[in-house]
Structure prediction request, 423 residues.
Amino acid sequence: MTTLGQSCIRRVAARVAYTISVALIAATSLLGQQAPVALTFLDVGQGDAIVIRAPDGRFAMVDAGRGSPLRQLTRLGVQELALVVASHAHADHIGGLDDVLTARPVETYLDNGTPHTTETYRELMAHVERLEVRYLEAVPRSLFLGEVAVEVWPLPRSSDGQNNRSVGLLVRYGEFTAILTGDSERSELDFWLNEGVVEDVTLLKAPHHGAVNGFTYEFLEATDPEVVVISVGEDNSYGHPRPEALAAYTSFADRVLRTDRDGTVTVLGYADGRHDVVLGDTPYVDMARRSVQRVDSSVGEYGEIRVGTGLSDILSVSVHPDAGGDDWENLNDEYVVIENRSRTRLGIGLWKLCDLSSRCFRFPPGASIAAGRRVVVYTGYGTTDGVSFFMNNGRPVWNNDGDEATLFDSGGIAIARYVYEEE
Prediction:
């Protein structure tokens, strides 16, 4: 433990349970009594940065990536932080924390208590001391953001580096649970299994960006996650996530999400154990609106639209199946319109649009729909420009006498379905 850490920790009364009491942003009335906890995995490239929003409006942050995350925090509406956790001292996790501490009031700072030799680490700790931020070392304890408990797991007494001294956290809100493990490798995962702190959870942040040494089948069997989120940079030099890790995660989880493909990912967890997923840099107020009602329906020109998984108030889908003249000769007069009615851009990269016969079009990586705008998917041939997409199909797809258009996200979850019949 450094002298800095000792001097800071003397300012704190040691206790197993510590309640974070700074009043942050008041909970919006849109959330109501069924407000979820939100865990947002920021798209920061090859690194980790996670924001936790409690139902009462308090915020915590775990890591901050290599560069500044302030623009993303501003978009999310994060003005103050009750808790900041540095999982370990590598630059791709703490590089952005200096900016966070400079620009946002922070009450409590927690790390693994293991010094590092880098200038990034030394400058960050000097900043913590200058600001007189309350410092806590990661020892077994429970911190609270209102009704949300952040349980700090024990650390191995010795390790072979910073990765295996990553702070382990279990976030608990009623029946919803999530595990955040920094860059833990197999030895630390095994340590936690032996300590008996691991349990079945809803959400798991993939340890060590989906590295081959960042998972064990024993750990996955114990956690049995429904959702796995991998924080990873596109085309990174490490080859993360590794195929072996992806195979393991997909064999356990219903849904595996990646920030390199899906962008910023938010998992909304409800006290009864339910969860929703929201993709993109969406302000929490907008997430609250779409989480109020999980399933909605409305009538379009040809039929009924059913929308689920929390996107009911922002997505509409419609089909124009009957091309003018001969359908075979006028393929691009047969098309599907997808409209984003929200105030933020919606990422649809690697989503699929399928008819009832499972003839599908997959959107290219990085595809998105601007706020308040539409994209059109034409049946015939053409060149994609980000607004017009083409199935490049040489025959009609959408049956004039009735069909079903289903939009699936990149995890294979049905997001919207449009059903029509011949009038």
Notes: Residues 73 and 94 are 15 Å apart (CA to CA). Residues 1-33, 291-310 have pLDDT under 50 and may be disordered. The two ends are 75 Å apart (CA to CA).
